[in-house]
Amino acid sequence: MFSGFDFDVIERSLPYLFKEGMTFTLTLTAMAMAGGIVFGTLLAMARLSSIPMFNVPAATYVNLMRSVPLVLVIFWFYFLVPWIGGWIIGAREPIQVGAFWSSVITFTLFEAAYYAEIMRAGIQSIPRGQVSAGQALGLNYWQTMGFVVLPQAFRNMLPVLLTQTIILFQDTSLVYVLSITDFLGAAAKIAQRDGRLVEMYLFVAVVYFIISFSLSYGVKHLQQRIAIIR
Amino acid sequence: MQYNWNWGIFWQPAPDGTGVYFWWLISGLGWTLSTALLAWAIALALGAAIGTLRTTPVAWVVRLGNAYVEIFRNIPLLVQMFLWYFVLPELLPKALGDAMKQMVPPWASFWPAVLCLGFYTSARVAEQVRAGIQSLPRGQGMAGTALGLTLPQAYRFVLLPQAFRIILPPLTSEFMNIMKNSSVALTIGLVELTARARSMQEFTFQVFEAFTAATVIYILITLVVVFAMRYVEQKVAVPGLISAGGAPMAGH
Amino acid sequence: MTHLSRLFVALFVAGAVCGTAGAQDTLKKIKDTGTITIGHRDTSIPFSYYDDKQNVVGYAMDICMKIVDAVKTNLKLKKLDVKFNPVTSATRIPLMANGTIDLECGSTTNNLDRQKQVWFTITHFVTANRYVAKKSSNIKSLADLKGKTVVSTSGTTNIKWATEENAKRKLGMNIIAAKDHAEAFLTVDTGRAVAFFMDDILLYSLVATSKNPSAWAIGSEAYTVEPYGIMLRRDDAAFKKVVNGAVTRLYKSGEINKIYDKWFLKPIPPKGVNLNVPMSAQFKKVVAKPTDSGDPKDY
């Protein structure tokens, strides 16, 4: 059926692929990164706390998320989020969560487990003496964390956090399983409609490669700069 | 809410007449494990070779190895899966492509999935192997060649045995990744564990029971692998060296 | 890691708490939020699919918009936002149950099994389960498919039927599950499977809009009767009454004929193909005497 390749199909569908598809992918990546790092940092702090009420649930959460495939997590949350949401706000019925927000929540919660491990390593890389020094100066826990530990931990871990974000960017393509129109989803719809699988999937691979490769190249540079200062 | 819980569903017969739903899930688990193990064999072999090549003193070999790693690392796994399954057969000579497509299921999706996961993970293993070798003091290789070993011999007898013992913990987590990543193969029709849970949900509408069962099975595998590898790691740890597993790595 | 089990207990408790909540009130929700969410399909031609401008169109979508109008009038709302959420055969029922969508407008078979999870409004089409194959593969009956690879869409009544029939008659068919109808059709087109089991109306549409319609043959035997219904949440009698009322009015006023002709007897987007499927005797009976029965015997 692929009698001769038709690369025009790509040109014709460019506006749809990028305006709908890539916009969804990038927005999802950005929001899940922001949410994931914030929640991940909180998880890391809870996990390092000496109070069982905090460290046990945090460790459980991180280990659970890390032992289940993302595809399964995506299915879980797509069906479960409205019910959890309704339960949290005490509503009698599930709240309505659209495909986009459902994806944002899923990826935030999933990636948070990975960001948490990175931030934990980052916090542990700060010498204990600094925490003691902060406390000696009269800072409380949140002040010590906010002014002394986290800024350094964050900076030390920046390259790893960004690398994880590139992985997140690639992982968002898995929303395909829910028939959501991200970049890959948009391409797949056109590929199936016009019977142009080869052209579309090759194009998608090239676009993902260019973006991920330039980003990881940037991260490598950043890593070298940070490494010198440290 | 109109969700009717029914935990007895696992003991009800599945529509394909092969047994109850519980065995459906177990057969899915079988496919998950066989896909992951075969792909892991490919990933280890290729990854070790390419990771080693990337530490040799030959510049063009290093560059080739780097290019390999970058290609497989910077394209999403799902897209790679589509390339192996949908695109490759169309680019091959027609007879070969048709033969690939007409393999009897589940093989038509099993082999592309194994190859895809194998190559994808080999790039990550190669990265670990390179890091492992480079974490060794430079003097070790030099001492080997000074003793009259050829470069391949120095790798074979001095560098690689140590590197593999050091990178065992990250390799364990790569194995866990390959097992979890095998669920992506459901997009090309492989009925592994996640796909089984999903089709069970479609036939019975018992969403949460099906997904819970799959989740529990994945956790059990993780526990088994983690405990087994912890034992192995203790056995093979290089005395006097801190394990490389402490270094943070982004990944899944 | 024994903590994992604790989290599970917590999850189950959460689930159980959710599970005991009371009946649904979709009308109230629509009134409070001022929005109604319609679940639609990607490739259920001509019921619910994307046209070339990537808008969702179709016969079921037109009927749904009439229902939306009726809901708006019933609630005396000045403005009612309509949101669209894509669903697949596999996700539609869970997404209905968990409140993501309020109406599912597509090509969903109403049957007694599914009524344990969701409700359906009055039947908007009656179709039958058949297969499509390439003429060149010379498939004449189910017996010819013995030992062959076939495909159907996951989450459909058709794949369930094929799976059961395969076991019952010991046909030894290998059944692949595809994500949606277009993917399933493509599976046969690229030679990965020899036949695709689906509702015949969807097969007609796929063949008519394919690159080479004359290369395809649809099986002559119809295996099951599949009445289509628009899906809504279970145990929501008030909402169902409004929806059923809207569809009944559509049928009694004869307006349905205009909508039917538009999608089945005239050229439709994206390719301007005319499906040319006149209204069946079974569906005429439904229009004359609207029913929401999920029992094939009633058609």
Task: Please describe what this structure looks like.
The complex is a heterotrimer of chains A (230), B (252) and C (299). Chain A has 230 residues and is an all-alpha fold. Helix content of chain A is 81%, strand content 0%. Chain A contains 8 helices and no strands. The longest helix of chain A has 41 residues, at 8-48. Chain A is flat. The relative contact order of chain B is 0.15. The two termini of chain B are 35 Å apart. The model of chain B is unreliable at 243-247 (pLDDT under 50). Chain B contains 10 helices and no strands. Chain C has 10 helices and 16 strands. Chain C has helices at residues 3-19, 26-33, 59-75, 92-97, 157-168, 181-189, 200-208, 237-252, 255-264, 281-288; strands at residues 35-40, 43-44, 48-50, 56-57, 81-86, 103-104, 118-120, 125-134, 149-153, 174-178, 195-199, 216-218, 225-228, 231-233, 267-268, 273-274. In chain C, strands 8, 9, 10, 11, 12 and 13 form a 6-stranded mixed beta sheet that branches. In chain C, helix 3 packs across helix 8. The relative contact order of chain C is 0.18. Mean pLDDT of chain C is 89; it is low at 1-5 and 11-22. Chains in contact: A-B, A-C, B-C. At the A-B interface, helix 3, helix 4, helix 6 and helix 8 of A face helix 2, helix 3, helix 8, helix 9 and helix 10 of B.
At a glance:
By secondary structure, chain A is an all-alpha fold. Chain A is 81% helix and 0% strand.
What's the β-strand tally of chain C? 16
How many beta-strand runs of chain B?
0
The chain-level mean pLDDT of chain B equals 89
Series of H and E elements of chain C = HHEEEEHEHEEEEHEHEHEEEHHEEH
Describe the structure using short key phrases.
heterotrimer; A: mainly alpha; MetI-like fold; flat; B: 252 residues; mainly alpha; 71% helix
